[in-house]
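During data preparation, a discrete fold description was generated, as reproduced here:
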Amino acid sequence: MKKDAVFIFSEEQLGYSFSDTHPFNQKRIVLTLDLLKNMHAIHDKDIVAPRIATDEELLLVHEPKFVEIVKQAGKGEVGPEVGSVYGIGTEDTPIFSNMHEASAMLVGGTLTAVDEVMQNRARYALNLGGGLHHGFQGKASGFCVYNDSSVAIRYLQKNYNASVLYIDTDAHHGDGVQWTFYDDPDVCTLSIHETGRYLFPGTGHVTERGNGKGYGTSFNFPIDAFTEDESFLSIYETAFREVAEWFKPDVILTQNGADAHYFDPLTHLYGTMEIYKEIPRLARELAEEYCEGRWIAVGGGGYDIWRVVPRAWSHIWYAMKQLPAPTGRLPEAWLNKWQSEAPVPLIETWEDPNPLYKPIPRKLEIEEKNAQVMDRSLHYIRSEQQPR
């Protein structure tokens, strides 16, 4: 019997850990799953264990030498001079024990999600361990070793002959995925992110539209620092709808970084929990409209793991299960269990405190600039009427 949604998880996903002090902390998956369990929104039958990606699958995207170096690094056999050439052993992406196995497990989780959906065992699938969108073919970058989304897209093309619409709402530009498919007309990438003037990786300009046969299939919306909910969601809904209507994908893959929130320590956007309610709701709606429901979601950034990520990521599961968005107070059992471990006071309600921050003096100016960005990026399909 086909399930409405599956949640990909096993504790092996927690092995992707750079250090106890590194901002990328997979404990956020545990916190999210525990919150869903305390809300009685998820049950054991909904959880599917991930598998580890094979070398053959990793090589759909990654260069053989890079995979070999990652394997050696995880065994302590790579020094800093060699490692830095491949983006590992850096401050952002330190080497850790069993790096290859842990990274391949996250990729395998996204491939598991793909198969659940494409083999009609589930309508939707969620792998919060994925979303490592900065990984390149031959180099790690920005906390990301292997790029699970890129591998999953190639896997979708190879095994299911699918055209893929990739939507990235992480505050950081989805550079690794974009460049992997920059000349591929059957993969469309759409990224809404904080402008690279202030934030890593510094790419994702409106002028990055694709190359060769893939020209016009790359859409970027670099929004200004201090962007708030209304402007973010206006771009998200308008762009997603227009691009989906133009591209008409077979499947939608969404990357759900939760670092556009005001509390996130690594970014400068002023989002609230309202955007995280709407992001998955629209993804499900458009997957139903264009893809017969085929929607795969992965995690991504999100560095306030206590106050933001569990609530934000829970909304993805609620959307997949077609449950009303949760409101009111979080479960007492969850608050009591985790407050003693949290370094900050937990937010005790599904909604953010109101007001969450002081009014932004440049609000109208920011919104106008963002609207101009949206118009410039969508000009290709609006004015030129380019056929798909």
